[in-house]
Amino acid sequence: MTAPDPEALRVLRERGFIQQVSDEDGLRAQLAGGRVTFYSGFDPTASSLHVGSLVPLMAMAHLARAGHRPIALLGGGTTMVGDPSGKTELRQMLTKEQIGENRVGIEAQVRRVLADAKDAVVVDNAEWLLPLNYIDFLRDIGRHFSVNRMIAAEAYKQRLEKGLSFIEFNYQLLQAYDFLVLERSHGCLLQIGGDDQWGNIVAGVDLIRRVDQKQAFALTFPLITTASGAKMGKTAAGAVWLDAGRTSPYDFYQYFVNVDDRDVVRFLKLFTFEPIENIAEFERLGGAELIGIKRVLARAVTKIVHGEAEAEKAHRAALAAFGGGGDESAIPTYTVAGTEKVVDVLAASGLAASKSVARRLVEQGGVRLGDRKIAAVDDTLRPEEIGTGVLLHAGKKSVRRLVLEAAD
């Protein structure tokens, strides 16, 4: 077991993970004084986490490396209610079966990122939320919450303007109760999460103080945007997922190798285990030298999420697709009949999120099949130019290797 690092909070701060802390001096003393159990929650609202979820996961991994014990809470119970934080409308209600299927996929992703934390715990709040007696819950837990204080929270204020359902209004109580349950069952004294969760997390800190007379702590991360101001993880092909079936390891690698120059150092701090002193050396680099650093970033993040073999395969494929050798067979392959419209292939192969996006790419002159520029939205493939395989480029960053389907 690793001895706790008294500088764990400093590590998080210098890597860019800290936005708010409920009692920074108190938390620093707690982390320095011994092993702290902490948690972060992930509601299984989809079959996969997206790249933005790497922020809490990497913070958990860094705290675990500093000798502290992580709990990943999968919200099988809270997903049935829906978190209104950061949302402009009611989330889609999922069935228990859908939530269960999503939970399985997300748990595998969480465990991969936390692989080095041998004593990491994964729990599902459905275990204690679904059997709750509503009247008892209101009397024992609900009485500690002020409605006036709740609606003053930023997450609820934004939703009140467009309409907040009663079921969503319960979410803060349930998340606070999760913290109380984990404090009692695992000695958990710290919850971490995105800054949009600040009100919910502090509600849990307050509930533990009121009910169990113990001091707990809240720590939130900044909501990550790119240097251009865009939400992180959005591309022409859609969201960047941690599931290889939704975003291939190659496309995942390409997302990071093509980040804005201004984001490279920041993303190295947030999404890799690269020593901070090494990253400081990269800050002085620019221009062509940054290309190599972006590859360091892309390989490191892809290795964490998909494993070393897939990271190396994605690296070789990228070299082949954009010059410099490599292995063209490692580029994601899409099989065609050879007579389809190019815009249809762009959308179907994942190079564009939809046919309308594909049409815009063509109209902007950003699509190339081998050496041929696709000039019109009604352009079709030609079987003879595909041969044993040809590269279809969408913009400067995305590519698929097209092959002809086998003849019967």
**Structural class determined from secondary elements:** alpha/beta
Q: At the third CATH level, what is the topology name of the largest domain?
A: Rossmann fold
| Helix content estimate | 40-55%
Rg result: 24 Å
What oligomeric state best describes the polypeptide chains here? single chain
Task: Estimate the mean pLDDT confidence.
Answer: 87
Note the total helix count.
19
User: Can you summarize the main beta sheet?
Assistant: 6 strands, mixed
Binned strand content: 5-15%
Query: What is the end-to-end distance?
Result: 59 Å
- The tally of beta strands, per DSSP, is 13
The general outline is: globular
* Tally of discrete structural domains: 3
CATH H-level name of the largest domain... which superfamily?
HUPs
Which CATH-level-2 architecture of the largest domain?
A: 3-Layer(aba) Sandwich
Poorly predicted tracts of residues: none
Q: Biggest sheet: strands side by side, in what order?
A: 1-6-5-2-3-4
What is the highest CATH level, the class of the largest domain? Alpha Beta
